[in-house]
Design brief:
Blueprint (H helix, E strand, L loop, with lengths): L11 H15 L8 H26 L9 E5 L2 E5 L1 E11 L2 E11 L8 H5 L9 H11 L4 H12 L5 H11 L3 H7 L9 E13 L19 E13 L6 H8 L17 E8 L4 H15 L6 E6 L3 H11 L2 E4 L1 H15 L5 H15 L3 H15 L4 H15 L6 H6 L8 H7 L16 H12 L45 E3 L5 H7 L4
Parallel strand pairs: 1-10, 5-8, 8-9
Antiparallel strand pairs: 1-2, 3-4, 5-6, 6-7
């Protein structure tokens, strides 16, 4: 059996380029330049050295010649690829464009198969997986045009905006499958927490729309679309007093280091969001995630939401948990009420909110509602202030059964959640509530940003866009002088010396990843 052909790799071009770089750095002209110009030119010349080294490495890998014929084993029988032909392929990497010469095996009526593409785990696109990964990571933090410009500045590789727009949907194609197949890690916490919320995302109008000189009443420059945000995590109980919660919300002094033990951190946190799925679909996914983590229902299950009644009804019906009104949303209502009585930013408004929050944490929701309504009558308020205060009072009264914060704190339950909010607005990632164009890339942008925020972008092994597929071949070959050859990806056991290819159950998927001609 003929092993994969290896060509002698000539590393002299890289050595010559490196020697030229060394000579230039020591030249009289370079010694007169400021440091920032030296950095810029050294980086550009250094990229060429790395590109030439990569080109030499690819020559070491051979052309993927595994014999006179390739026999593919399929469930319905064996198929012989007997026609061979060498072909060239260009691949754009983070170092620049490299050329590959690879052997292709074909038969009438079907695409060619290139063993070298599989051995190198090459993508179907002309951009390497590493370059695609960097492009996707930049795209979910910045506008597309700015992303390709940033990559060009950092790597010297120019990629069109349209290419990036095509790469991004592929990167998020397996977002749901990644979490479904992810193993459930053992958590020390005894409380399983879910949170569901809605977030408005400003959508940029299409370029073809005609701008108006002046908007009429009720018109807005850009429209918002509501995305449903969800998070599930495990947490250990954390017993606190209402005073401790107030101190964390309204700190009056810097706490001394080591004075209080650090709060328990959320464990195995999953955060996801969707513009396309409705609330019911997302809540169903939350229920499935909770059942996956706690199939025996032995953990304490909580769910935090805002005061939207439709959302609360869906969560209550689907999750069958203790439903808690997020304290953060209660604070928003209290601030609105405070500004009806006191000037914004005044000490009186701050003290009013602190006092009512403390009373609510002690379980006196009814007394706070009663006080607001009495203040409306005694002060003779009318107009917008009266309307705002009545709305706040009704909001608190309607949710009073979900505001038993005194019991929640005694049980060690958190009265508010920040996990999904932090992930949604994390400034380190540009904020998920970025301006998006109303296109097919809106949902993939959100999915990929979620992966980056939660630290899963590098472990999303199912994403076909920038993650190479794992090897799916059995090997009975030994290493030859060329190093790891393409023949080692195959089981070479045919009596006539032909290569047998066993892709297993991933034939249809691998056909996309192989560079089919």
């Amino acid at each position: 059996m003929t092993a994969a052909t290896c060509f002698p790799a000539d590393t002299r071009p890289a050595f010559v380029e490196f020697s030229l770089l060394e000579s230039w750095l020591a030249s009289s002209s370079a010694l007169q330049l400021p440091l920032h110009q030296i950095e810029s030119q050294q980086q550009a010349r250094g990229r060429e050295v790395q590109r030439l080294l990569l080109q030499a490495h690819l020559q070491h890998r051979g052309n993927g010649d595994v014999g006179p014929a390739l026999q593919l084993e399929l469930p319905d029988g064996e198929v012989l690829y007997s026609h061979r032909r060498l072909s060239d392929r260009s691949l754009t990497t983070v170092f620049g464009t490299v050329e590959l010469v690879r052997m292709g095996y074909s038969r009438p009526g079907v695409p060619s198969i290139f063993p070298l593409d599989k051995a190198l785990a090459l993508p179907a696109r002309s951009f390497s997986y590493e370059l695609q990964r960097r492009l996707v990571k930049a795209a979910v933090q910045n506008p597309f045009l700015e992303s390709v410009q940033t990559i060009a500045e950092l790597t010297g590789v120019s990629v069109s905006k349209r290419s990036l727009e095509e790469i991004l949907p592929d990167a998020a194609r397996d977002f749901d499958a990644f979490y479904q197949q992810r193993a459930v890690a053992t958590a020390a916490g005894a409380i399983l927490v879910a949170a569901v919320d809605a977030k408005g995302i400003p959508m940029v109008k299409p370029c073809g729309s005609q701008p108006k000189a002046r908007l009429t009443k009720g018109q807005k420059a850009n429209k918002k679309r509501m995305a449903t945000v969800a998070t599930v995590f495990t947490r250990a109980p954390w017993v606190r007093t209402p005073q401790q919660v107030i101190e964390s919300l309204f700190p009056t002094s810097h706490p001394a280091s080591g004075e209080d033990p650090p709060p328990p951190r959320p464990e195995n946190k999953r955060v996801w969001a969707s513009l396309l799925k409705g609330k019911t679909a997302v809540i169903q996914e939350v229920a499935e995630e909770m059942d996956r983590r706690d199939p025996l229902r032995s953990m304490t299950r909580l769910a935090l939401t805002d005061g939207e009644r439709a959302l609360q009804i869906r969560v209550d019906q689907k999750l069958n948990v203790t439903l808690i009104l997020d304290l953060i949303h209660v604070l928003e209502k209290l601030w609105k009420a405070a500004y009806c009585f006191h000037a914004e930013g005044s000490l009186e408004a701050d003290l009013w909110v602190i006092d009512r929050t403390l009373r609510i944490l002690f379980g006196e929701v009814g007394q706070v509602v009663k006080g607001i309504r009495q203040s409306i009558t005694k002060r003779g308020l009318s107009g917008p202030k009266r309307k705002t205060l009545n709305a706040v009072a009704n909001y608190l009264y309607r949710n009073r059964t979900r505001m038993r914060y005194d019991k929640y704190l005694a049980n060690g339950w958190a009265p508010a959640r920040t996990s999904s909010k932090i992930a949604w607005n994390d400034p380190a990632c540009g904020g998920l509530s970025k301006w998006l164009k109303p296109s097919s890339n809106s949902e993939p942008s959100i999915c990929q940003r979620i992966l980056i925020v939660t630290g899963n972008s590098t472990s999303n092994r199912t994403s076909a866009a920038y993650t190479p597929p794992g090897p799916s071949f059995q090997s009975s070959h030994t290493q030859n002088d060329c190093g790891t050859s393409a023949a080692q990806r195959y089981s070479l056991g045919a009596p006539d010396g032909r290569s047998r290819w066993r892709p297993g159950t991933t034939v249809s998927r691998e056909s996309e990843q192989l560079g089919h001609a």
